[in-house]
Amino acid sequence: MEQVEFKVEGMDCGGCVKSVTRMLNGVPGVSKVDVSLELAKAAVEFDAAQASLADLKRAVERAGFKAP
Ligand code: 9UX
């Protein structure tokens, strides 16, 4: 199990946190998601055989936020 933490830009309220959380949980292989509005970060636990950091960032961007 891989654990990563990366920056998520553009979240302005709890609704954004929910959107990002839902999108990340929708990525195959993801087992744990913790998105912080205050820190502007997402902490994700996933199976490296099924997903990559790039997949996670793509999911965040699909939700309409930036994950540089
Ligand atoms: Mo809150 Mo986020 O009104 O896209 S849901 S700012």
Name the features:
binds dioxo(di-mu-sulfide)dimolybdenum; Alpha-Beta Plaits
Give an overview of the whole structure.
Helix content is 32%, strand content 28%. It contains two helices and three strands; from the N terminus they run E-H-E-E-H. It has helices spanning 14-25, 53-62, and strands spanning 2-7, 30-36, 41-46. Strands 1-3-2 form a three-stranded antiparallel beta sheet. Strand 2 and strand 3 form a beta hairpin. The longest helix is centred in the first third of the chain and has 12 residues, at 14-25. It is globular and about 30 Å long. The chain starts with a strand and ends in a 6-residue tail after the last helix. The model has no long low-confidence stretch (mean pLDDT 98). The structure holds dioxo(di-mu-sulfide)dimolybdenum.
CA-CA gap between termini: 23 Å
Count of domains: 1
Which bin fits the share of residues in helices? 25-40%
Number of strands: 3
Q: Structural class of the helices, strands and pairings? A: alpha+beta
Bound molecules: dioxo(di-mu-sulfide)dimolybdenum
The largest sheet, given as strand count, sense and whether it forms a barrel, is: 3 strands, antiparallel
What's the CATH topology label? Answer: Alpha-Beta Plaits
* Strand/helix succession: EHEEH
Unreliable parts: none
Do you know the CATH architecture?
A: 2-Layer Sandwich
